Amino acid sequence: MNLNQFAFEAAFGTARQLPPSTLPEIAFAGRSNVGKSSLLNCLLRRKSLARVSGTPGKTVTVNFYSNGKMRLTDLPGYGYARRSKGELARFANLMEGYFQQNRNIALVVQLIDLRHPPSCDDETMLRFLHESKLPFVVVLTKSDKLKPMQLARRMEEMQTSLTDCGAQALVPFSSETGKGRAELLLLLEAAAGANEGGLS
């Protein structure tokens, strides 16, 4: 699969600025510092297409990447406590505005840090996706940070706790080693094909 044609398209800070959904979209959601930008760079095999920050909560825009047939949508990370009340309100409106608009969402990729149990915000997001009947997969990031025995135990715990969340798949992933990249690409390709778009 050729992903070289994907390029940064635009970033928007309010729901009113979001453009019409003219292409199928694959949206990436998760807590701040869960590794969304690193995952996108790993998927597209680009070192800095998506900006990676060491400061949690820095991404507060909806960022679109397009290849002319499909958009990858990097949603702002949630759950960062050090935002001001105004920023929190803008963030909530931006997230709600994105999902409440009549957008052609082919798939949501929900990221959760494999090292920790799902947070309350994670559970809220999973419940929202399930109740909204949006197709989604759960990607369990930072799998390289765990030793083999820890990884096996955490995967078993995640599979138990997320059994009824409605996800189409659970994918352990590492942006450092590329673990899970091939499996995730197959899921994205299936979603793209089902929506007459295409990742290639």
Summarize the structure in words:
With 200 residues, the protein is of the alpha/beta class. The chain has a single domain (7-194), classed as P-loop containing nucleotide triphosphate hydrolases (Rossmann fold, 3-Layer(aba) Sandwich), CATH 3.40.50. Helix content is 32%, strand content 20%. It has a 7-stranded mixed β-sheet, sandwiched between helices. Strand 3 (62-66) and strand 4 (71-74) form a beta hairpin. The longest helix is centred in the middle third of the chain and has 16 residues, at 85-100.
Brief digest:
The chain has five helices and seven strands, in the order ββαββαβαβαβα. It has helices at 36-44, 85-100, 120-131, 148-161, 181-194; strands at 7-12, 25-30, 62-66, 71-74, 105-113, 136-141, 170-172.
| Gap between N and C termini | 6 Å
Q: According to CATH, what is the class?
A: Alpha Beta
The CATH homologous superfamily is termed P-loop containing nucleotide triphosphate hydrolases
Please estimate the helix content. Answer: 25-40%
Structural class: alpha/beta
E-strand count: 7
Query: What's the shape?
Result: globular
Sheet having the most strands: 7 strands, mixed
Please give the CATH architecture. Answer: 3-Layer(aba) Sandwich
Helix and strand run:
EEHEEHEHEHEH
Number of domains: 1
Average pLDDT works out at 87
